[in-house]
Protein 1
Amino acid sequence: MIEHFSYIVTVFLMIAGLYIVIARGNLIKKLVGLSIFQTSVYLLYLAPGKLLGGTAPILAPAYGVYSNPLPHVLILTAIVVGVATLALGLALAVRIREVYGTIEEDEILALDHRIEEAEEQGEERRA
Amino acid sequence: MSLATHLPALQVVLPLLSAPLAVLLRHGGVAFVLVTAGAWAAFATAIGLWLQVGQLEQGAFISYPIGSWAPPWGIEYRVDRLTSLVLLLVSGMAALVLTASRASVEREIPRESHYLFYAMFGLCLAGLLGITITADAFNVFVFLEISSLSSYVLIALGRDRRALAAAYRYLIMGTIGATFIVIGIGFLYLMTGTLNLADMAARIGAIESSRPVLAALAFLTVGISLKLALFPLHQWLPNAYTYAPSVVTAFLAATATKVSVYVLIRFYFSVFGESLVFDKLPLPQIMLWLSLFAMFAASFTAIFQDNLKRLFAYSSVGQMGYITLGLSFDSVNGLAASIVHLFNHGIAKGALFLLIGGLVLGIAKPGSAPPTPSFDRLAGLAKRMPLTCLGIVIAGLSLIGVPGTAGFISKWYLILAALESGQPWLVGAVLLSSLLAIAYLWRFVEVAYLRSPAPGHEAGTEAPHSLLIPAWLLVAGTIWFGLDTSLSLGSALEAAGSLVRSGR
């Protein structure tokens, strides 16, 4: 149990994040869920890269055991991607709030539905 | 080292450089020239690589170590026949669409954000080319995110407010897809200790039945299927294509989903290997049924759309079904059908959406916002915009698969592969679903050619030459690749032959 602790945390975050994205209708909450989901992946890469008692990869006789530095580099890139995604998502949410006046998904769908109905009625009147 | 040896790096670097330059210079016209030049340079590079690959023997590839760090430690770029064909498609489509874009962008996007639009276009192109050329698993993810993030922005620039909602939705589903892909890559990295795809493939054989490898396969399949809009993971696509600016739809429809198919082919055939994907798991059967659902359900939905852009967006989902159907056979002819359809459908859809952009320009009233191309506005349009409408019909014939067009070649090989695999009923399915394509194309023909315009909708002039000429080059391409198949089918067969085990 204790040796799988990091995996349990990873899977919990993964499922919790994905659940929030799917289950919540609020655009901001969806983005929170998405971020949690992405964060779980950081842990998936990083946790196995750490060796107990391992140091940074220094080539010196005093250090024998070192942790793999590559996952850290990869996840640094993934974090940048995650930040960019979150920023873009929030920017879109702001623009949606400006033009729709709401950030609830069901209300946006209802507004769109109303436009489509209005368009169809306009066409019928013309025809 | 001469310039020729550095072509793989230049392929990505040239369009990648054009984007920040466009932002720094802050001028719409200059940005257009810069990014278009970048795309043409990428196209020239792709042709150069094509010629270089042609000189190698079958199945050989060009390997380029980035920064001279030898693979598998450094990042490797790798160009074989399939890579080269996809590079040609992506960079060629970008060059033509960008050349045609000026008039349409002028009307559909606010002037002050033109330079940002072109910068995003350049980034999206660089990302798509990067995904195709790289041989490093994590690099695939990074380039995937570069192209995805810029395409979310491009879609959100559409004038309709529904473009924002569509872009948000695509962002959520696209990011879930990309995260699934990176989880899959993570499992593979943990199990094999390498990120180089070829190195991974060599080490995966010994552990292919272990649970993390199976999980990686599942995560990658679902993630890539989201990006390529495999039915039923296609929900983001219709709205994104409908409300994005016309040129963005033309470019994304022709390239983005096609590059995702390429990634799927790479992982299935080059990394996991057919014995795992096709023999031990029921993946081909799942793929077969999802493809059939896509071919019928999406094409059937397309028939009832009132917006021409949305109609062809659903048609795209249906056409992706043919591509994944070819994959599921695991035979040379099947994979060749997928590859050649990826190429042919890209050209036809690029032409279609460009010409629809021309239609929107043509029916727009001076000074007002460009309207949606709904059928009541298109009535009798063939008289006033004959070239645009004829182009749409010819490209549409390629979607149906009429002999003499490129679409016929792909469907012919699909049928051959179905017969080879001992499932002749699939021939009927392919033919039946083509009938659905006839139905939705006929709706356009009927409205544009046979109906008289509704009062108040008589306006409409031919689209500008700057848009018509590149679009007609693509239309000519759908005919050319239906008659002379040495480029498209020849390289598809060669690529499939070296990827599929029965072809080796």
Protein 2
Amino acid sequence: MVEESGVASASASTIPPFSREQELTAFRDMLLIRRFEEKAGQLYGMGVIGGFCHLYIGQEAVVVGVKMAARDGDQFTTSYRDHGHMLASGMEPRRVMAELAGKRGGYSKGKGGSMHMFSREANFYGGHGIVGAPAPIGAGVAFANAYRGDGRVSLTFFGEGAANQGQVYEAFNMASLWKLPVVFIVENNRYAMGTEISRASAQIDLSKRGAAFGIPGKQIDGMDVRIVKATADEAIEWCRAGKGPYLIEAQTYRYRGHSMSDPAKYRSKEEVQKMREEHDPIEQVRARLIADGMSEDELKKIDANARKIVAEAADFATADKEPDPSELWTDVLA
Amino acid sequence: MTVNVLMPALSPTMEQGKLAKWLKNEGDAVKAGDVIAEIETDKATMEVEAVDEGVLARILVPGGTENVAVNTPIAVIAEEGEEVADTADHAPVDRVGEEDKAQKQAEAAPPVPGQTAPQDEPGEANKAATKAAVEAATPAPKATSVAKEPSATVAPEVPEGTTMVSMTMREALRDAMAEEMRRDPNVFVMGEEVAEYQGAYKITQGLLQEFGARRVVDTPITEYGFAGVAVGAAFAGLRPILEFMTFNFSMQAIDHIVNSAAKTRYMSGGQINCPIVFRGPNGAAARVAAQHSQDYSAWYSQVPGLIVISPSNASDAKGLLKAAIRNDNPVVFLENEILYGKTSEVPALEDFVLPIGKARIARPGKDVTLVSFSIGMTYALQAAEQLAKEGIDAEVIDLRTLRPMDTATIIESVKKTGRCVAIEEGWPQCGISAEIAMRVQQEAFDYLDAPVLRVTGKDTPMPYAANLEKLALPSVADVITAAKAVLYRS
């Protein structure tokens, strides 16, 4: 079901409820991403962060919901709107922020930047700057899982703009043909840079995009972390059972521009305002926690803690040194 | 009226093949389209159909005959009741003798007579614990010993006295992959037609039988996609050998080769390696025109984060492919279709691995330095032989690895000779030879007695017409002319 707002909805009765603990996990993790991204935006304005910087604000429920369904060892691969995925994967905020700032303490020693970051220990395989590239790469990570028979699932994210890239369908075909354990998660935030989905896609129900390859697909409200989690549970179980790939179209929304330099002339302020007021993923959880008897103070403490982590990350990133000039020549070859 | 049935060509590069067997006997009636015989090369098997209706009056080449030249009459079809004279003007069977073979190899312009690839299971070689066993596993080996002098094809890294066996580059590449797959369970082969079909150019022959479908993976025709999949698998710790049916199709995949494979180690601050080999035939084959004849040596050589290797003979191909598979970096391994069928000496060592980034002096000399690689070496070596007859002693360097390029070996040679000609089949602008010329003028300017010259493919797309294609490629004569020019001789 798709509402006028463009966000798929499910009736309240079909949404599997979260426990208090799950609500708190979702709240804490989404809030950390939100505060982190807000700070990144500020640091960009101050010139601490350069180049391209794509913020995830508004989309937090997608990666957090998937992460809640994942098991240790499952891998994450995404494109360049990737800060949220890194934090959800358990990467250290200060080292992510230092990388955004191009400092030596960053995950890539300052050589990758916002769009190209990796963490072997967090099973985070990027951070890819080429639209569509995560699809075959994530399928390749799944190929390794299937090759080893280790039961891991590759969780592969890309945007609705990337969903028009040919390599995505090449990856779908092989993933299905070889029954690879990969969940493709299309984060449909409705705008590929400035192009609204209906101006770029002949079929805007992206969950159908795997049908030609026999890949089951589900279109969901990606603003509701409970729905994302429940759908990811199904998808991951499907993959782990050896049935092949699964496609999730998570309908979401980014509040900020495509990148920091986006004038956002392609949509109205009212549209953005309406999404923030009626569908905000974090506010939904907050409201449920309050309704469940949590106090504002308790939630404020969680927020304060997120702000503290982020402030420390920003301080670290600001104070950290640039890479040593000799680093120009390292890590080119193994 | 009789009709000659001619030995057909299975591919643009085929010059001869084996007439495997006849499916009809003399005197049998045949209809157009009937399969009358099977022929094979080291690459493929094909059925020969009758071209006309009538009687198979005469079989001119018996089944089982090797090295039957293309266009040789192999049978005569006559009309029913027609007399066929024994002395009909059928050309005698053009069998290529051993001498001719040797001669042709020396001339090296056409491909060496196709030897039938050994059908022995790679598993057999695995069991070969001794040199003798290795030799035994190779059909009709011509065992020789490595001499001290530099050789046109034998790497200086091979210890003196090592037993050598003759094999084609095709067999050497297959053996290299099989040996590395036995050694490391993370190594697997992926590409179009690599498994069931046994390789479009039969380089992966027998691998499916030994290693199974899990490790020898046929892909759909989807270069961009499977390059990305292989790169992802390499990020996750596997060691893919990715075969491009030809490197022409790697242009579909170049984004993953450059953006994903070559850059990720750097972009991850050294965390994520991409141990992958992209291999397949590169450059011009014969008569396949512009879109299937491109040389990518210069393209991939420009990219930091890639290693680029392009061997000229079976021995280097084996030792370097094994090194490439073990290397933790993405390696672009550029082979050459025309060289696949060429036979040369390969050391019968259990584990023959060559160093990456080392050029090889294929022929020592003092008057002029000729630098080349891959099939360019055939022009360089032949030119050197002809120059020797005119009293010009050329030193020939085989780069073997294009990136990192072994500048030191080139410079050392040029300091001795004072003259340099670089030879490649690729285009001239920003080519490998342009890079060589630059390095020589930068590092040995004071030693040069003449400007560095280049012999390259012409600055045009590859034409189809046989005469134009010949003009588009470098020639031995071009190399001789350039060598004489830098020596100010005519």
Protein 3
Amino acid sequence: MSVLLRVILVLVALGTFRYIIRKIRKSQAQIVDMGFWIIFSIILIIIALFPQIAFFMADVLQIATTVNFVFLAVIFLLLVQLFLLSIKVSKLESRVKELAGEVALKNYEDAEE
Amino acid sequence: MEKILLIIPAYNEAENIPWVIEELQQLDNVYDYVIINDGSKDNTKAICEEKGYNYVDMPINVGLADVFRTGMKYAVRHGYSMALQYDGDGQHDPHYIACMVEKMKQTNADVVIGSRFVEEKGCKSLRNVGSYIIQALIKLTTGKRISDPTSGMRLYNANVMKFLANEINMAPEPDTIALLIRQGFRVEEVEVKMRERQAGVSYLNFGNSIRYMMNICMSLVFIQWFRRKR
């Protein structure tokens, strides 16, 4: 891997980390939900700084090219995150609908009095 | 004397609601009813207000499943002993309500379905093909034959009402019927006649029908096995 590519990788990883941290601060999202993204961007930086980790893992798992190991790991992490997100959205939706029902019944009772 | 509530979901039913309610009020035995307006875009709400109908107004559009659940909560909180799922588009003939109530009392059933095909075979239209598939799947997963699982005219007793009001994933659909059977509730059927929808547009166009079938089949075949028992 050329020095230029590594420098670019490190810079992109650092940039991503900074961007994520800034967004989290601004959006006032719940810290619990952002934990994943902070750890994810730290992992990106570590792999960019020490690609030996990726080389080693690819070697152990007998994956032909290192980049395939990186893709595999990132896709898996994102899939898990997507699944958790899907559960969360579903829960959120049913709660909103439940609340809508309660509001409707409350309004009905208020109108009755 | 048992208290019966008709739960009438209404989404853009301004043309149908007035005569559906008037027909109900002309019966010898006047039933309590509640219209649940699911955030209609037409003047369904204005009509209910103007004519003094008993209605609950959902602040947003939430879909049939949660409209129905809200109706069930209403029924439970107002102490009704039976609740009937009744369409707001005029497909259901209120003269059959008495038969359904009678059947529930006779057989001590928890759910009574108003079926179009208890005796006669339904004609083979697209919707009925779907109905056959669902029927076969219910037979397969519960061992019970339900002749008209997609019928929207269903009577529930107080036990089931509480269950439907408090649990999630209890849409008024065939998969819920299958779940109720597997939970040990008793489901019976009564022959009823249904009419064509009188005005307005049905929710079930071709694309939606396919999606509906997919969802119900998935739910019946796969999801139901993993659901917790009561």
